[in-house]
Amino acid sequence: MGADLVRRCRRRRRVAGLPALAAAALLAPATGCGPGTGEPAGGPPSTAHRPTSHPVDDTGITARQGERFTLTVHQNASTREYWYLVGPRPDSSVLVSRGRDYASDSGDEPVDGAGGRLTFTFEAVGRGTTRFTLLHCTFTTCQGNTSTLPPGTTGPSLSPSPSPSSSRATASPAPERITYTVTVG
């Protein structure tokens, strides 16, 4: 509900007197104003359209057509820890990504070094089974990535050996890849 509608509803409730109360009761259905709780007429929004939250380690997900679900991971840009939706991407006739949303652990006030929660939202759009992968990069596993741009490669990367006398390169650990299987019935 828009902020203007909430203000109009609250303004109407401040008017004193019985005639004003009767007028407000008649106007409430026409304006969408609810019973004084700040909610739209008819009560709070339905919880039927709220996404189902799944734990990150729940890699086998069953959903109904039209259902939305989320996966929430910890992310901290100050330590170059990022998550990405990478291939295999979901079959768009079965499941579509509805974006990602970041919420800081420090609330509205940015705090240096604070991490947060990154939530990926998906919607089951058709019957079938599909797979998708989330890639977890840290400063030791991925190079050349940013908060929105995954690295160019997803395998182990070669980095120079710490010893200048050695000409060998050492492999850094591969980033974590979690593949999910979603069945929509």
Please tally the helical runs, counting DSSP H or I stretches of 4 or more residues. 2
Q: In which range does the helix fraction lie?
A: 10-25%
**Sheet bearing the most strands, described?**
4 strands, mixed
Shape: globular
Please count the beta strands (DSSP E, at least 2 residues each): 10
What is the radius of gyration? Answer: 24 Å
Please give the order of strands in the largest beta sheet: 1-3-6-5
| Classification by helices and strands | alpha+beta
Distance between the termini: 32 Å
Averaged pLDDT: 75
Beta-strand proportion: 25-35%
Give helix and strand order, one letter per element, not per position. HHEEEEEEEEEE
In short:
The chain is of the alpha+beta class and 185 residues long. It has helices spanning 3-14, 18-31; strands spanning 52-54, 60-63, 68-75, 82-86, 95-104, 116-124, 128-137, 158-160, 169-171, 176-184.
How are the SSEs ordered, and which strands pair?
Layout (H helix, E strand, L loop, with lengths): L2 H12 L3 H14 L20 E3 L5 E4 L4 E8 L6 E5 L8 E10 L11 E9 L3 E10 L20 E3 L8 E3 L4 E9 L1
Annotation keywords:
185 residues; alpha+beta; 4-stranded mixed β-sheet; globular; disordered N terminus
Explained architecture:
This protein has 185 residues and is α+β, with helices and mostly antiparallel strands. The chain is built from two helices and ten strands, in the order ααββββββββββ. A four-stranded mixed sheet has the order 1-3-6-5, with no helix packed on it. The chain has a four-stranded mixed sheet with strand order 2-10-7-4, with no helix packed on it. Strands 8-9 form a two-stranded antiparallel ribbon. A hairpin with an 8-residue loop joins strand 8 and strand 9 (169-171). The longest helix has 14 residues, at 18-31. 14% of the residues are buried. Residues 1-47 and 153-166 have low confidence and may be disordered.
